[in-house]
Amino acid sequence: MRFLVVCLAASLLAACTYDAKPVAVTSAASEIQTNRISRERVSLYLAPDLMDLETEADTGYTCSAHKFPVKAGSAVATSVRKVVEEAFAGYELRETPTYSGPDLDMRVGLESFKVDLAFDSGFWSAKANAQAELVLKVDVSRNGEAIVGRTTIAGEGTGRRDGGCGDGAEASAEATEKAIKRTMENMVYKLVNSGALTDQGR
Known about the structure:
This protein is of the alpha/beta class. The chain is built from three helices and ten strands; from the N terminus they run E-E-E-H-E-E-E-H-E-E-E-E-H. Strands 3, 5, 7, 8, 9 and 10 form a six-stranded mixed beta sheet that branches.
């Protein structure tokens, strides 16, 4: 399941927390052109705001008594690592932002992440509609000199579920996964297939 439900009953009202947990999307790595794969190794740093990425979906009046946290850190981090794994001859993941080794230095952090969730009320049920936008910031350097300067890479996605308020978590997870997929595809196109790494990184 991609969501977890926690409800706290107060009097006759039940306020619930529906956790959305999107999964990693690794298909974008298959779109890397083989002649654009870097022959160099890279040291990869994923900023804490990316690793611990979480936000609460913004909702309208309907279902506003409930909370819809979207926990996307693991999914985004795994997706980025898959692209990097396929784009370079090898890589290592480091825990500190500073780096002075012989490999390329690649840093990926969060620019913004937002999930909007709306419900269309019907007579018997509600339809959950979610829209997610993910923006990452990336730079690649060697010995302190930029190969790829600070670049923003973005992606959007939508999700839809029929049912009640609880289905907002599934809609949010679906929208986030699509946003991750589009962001990873744009990372491949912008950093790898464009020749930014191979043409400038030699």
